[in-house]
Amino acid sequence: MSTDPRGRQSGRPGISRRSLLRGAGLLTLGGLGATACGSPLVTGLTGAGPATRSLTYWNPFGGGDGVRMIEMQDAYVKAHPEIDLTPVTLTWGAPYYTKLSLATLGDSPPDIAIAHLDRYPTFAEADLLEPLDTEVLARHGITEDKFTPAAWQQSHVGDTLYALPLDTHPWVLYYHKDVCKKAGLLDADGALKNLDGRDALADAMAAAKKVTGQYGGVSATIADPATCWREFSTLYWQLGGNDILADDGARIVLDDDKAVQALTYQAELTVEKKVMPDIDYPGAITAFSTGKAGFYFQGPWEVTTFLTSKTPFGMTTFPQVFDEYVVWADSHAFVLPKDSSRDPQRRDLILQYAKFLLENSLTWAQGGHVPAWLPIQESKEYRELDPQSSYTRAAYAARYDPPAWYSGAGSNFENAFGDPVAGLKAGRLEPEQAVRAIRRNLAEFANTPPPVG
């Protein structure tokens, strides 16, 4: 893994603030769905500034994550009744980033917002985010030594810090305890035996399939480009594969030989050994929760799904199938959208809020995310969370999407891998054909200039 994957110099001109939206093909003001002229969203978009002792906080969290974030927000309000906190939850994906960009371009953004660490560099380079002064942060007790190293590193563009990581959500392995016990895959303590190595994982899924009579393991392929990319990239990077892109996405540097090796292994599980099916996201969840599969490959965010359904399951780090222990990962992080009217006192208030959420991120960790704030991650309370604390090591082997204007969560970069990998796992493509398709898909964006002014 490179020491500073975001620190390379691009051969292309920078992304301007106003052209960012054009290049991304995002939404217009008319589609923002604000329901009241005085709403925090409309206030941000129309330029009305916040009150002195108020805070506006935007995030894209729904479902269980949304419930936990509200719990953390409520705790802040209880501890700081003198502060008028206005949280705004928006739809995840392009709509969220569109509205955040528009509010910032209108020079009245939220005080603080959530961004994915594989998406925020585009906004930083477009001058939409405020750089964070480490001396100011230190006065609030926010220092590098209190964060997971990989997430802290990813929070920089070059040498400049732009984000405070809240978590890491890495690619992990879920295992069905009943199935694995019958298959002889659990140790004396009831934990999954070590499955490192190319054959060990495949053999374990073959053993699980004998028990279930259905599948050995499941991982969504149908209409799920993100999962296809995450599985492929984990295997590719474990083989020592490079960043895939260079010059901020202008050049494709995919190592074809290593890509073929990773794809060959994926096809081996689905087409050759038939221990994994061609299945969609809901189908994969159902198969695992009902004991029709012994294993489930995914990020840790489905932990509450299986806890709620009372599935007898455990979680662990995804195995080291190949040479190096690396896994795909992303992180949620706090960013300060650029605001020309922000003064030091307001900045202090914002940073105090961010620190409060970091210090209360044990609540957040219950949803499966590994806390980036080490005082929580190393606490007794977190270590006792089961199964959420059982894959913490993966946060230290995290590798993020390569930097490009078209990469990151919910991006065209993921889509470029989706159809070829899904086609391979369904038996429609050979590994070499999938690599050629991936290259063609990436070239469409690599050959397109980024949005510039």
Summarize the structure.
By secondary structure, this protein is of the alpha/beta class. It has helices at about 20-25, 40-45, 65-80, 95-105, 120-125, 135-140, 150-155, 175-180, 200-210, 225-240, 255-270, 280-290, 305-310, 345-360, 360-365, 375, 380-385, 410-425, 430-445, and strands at about 55-60, 85-90, 110-115, 155, 160, 165, 165-170, 170-175, 215-220, 245, 250, 295-300, 315, 325-330, 330-335, 370, 400. The two termini are about 35 Å apart.
Record the SSE blueprint:
Blueprint: H1 19-24, H2 40-46, E1 54-59, H3 63-79, E2 84-89, H4 94-105, E3 112-116, H5 120-125, H6 134-139, H7 149-154, E4 156-157, E5 160-161, E6 164-165, E7 167-170, E8 172-176, H8 177-182, H9 198-212, E9 217-218, H10 225-238, E10 245-246, E11 251-252, H11 256-272, H12 281-289, E12 295-298, H13 303-308, E13 313-317, E14 327-330, E15 332-335, H14 344-359, H15 362-365, E16 370-371, H16 374-377, H17 380-383, E17 398-399, H18 412-425, H19 431-446
Parallel strand pairs: 1-2, 1-3, 9-12, 14-17
Antiparallel strand pairs: 3-15, 4-5, 6-15, 7-14, 7-16, 8-12, 8-13, 10-11
Helix pairs in contact: 2-4, 10-11, 10-18, 11-19, 18-19
Note down, in words, how this protein is organized.
The chain is an alpha/beta fold and 453 residues long. It folds into 2 domains: 54-169 and 331-384, Periplasmic binding protein-like II (D-Maltodextrin-Binding Protein, domain 2); 172-328 and 404-447, 3-Layer(aba) Sandwich (D-Maltodextrin-Binding Protein, domain 2), CATH 3.40.190.10. The chain is built from 19 helices and 17 strands. The chain has helices spanning 19-24, 40-46, 63-79, 94-105, 120-125, 134-139, 149-154, 177-182, 198-212, 225-238, 256-272, 281-289, 303-308, 344-359, 362-365, 374-377, 380-383, 412-425, 431-446; strands spanning 54-59, 84-89, 112-116, 156-157, 160-161, 164-165, 167-170, 172-176, 217-218, 245-246, 251-252, 295-298, 313-317, 327-330, 332-335, 370-371, 398-399. A 5-stranded mixed β-sheet has the order 2-1-3-15-6, sandwiched between helices. A hairpin with a 2-residue loop joins strand 4 and strand 5 (160-161). Helix 10 packs across helix 11 and helix 10 (225-238) packs across helix 18. The chain is globular. The model is unreliable at 1-14 and 22-51 (pLDDT under 50).
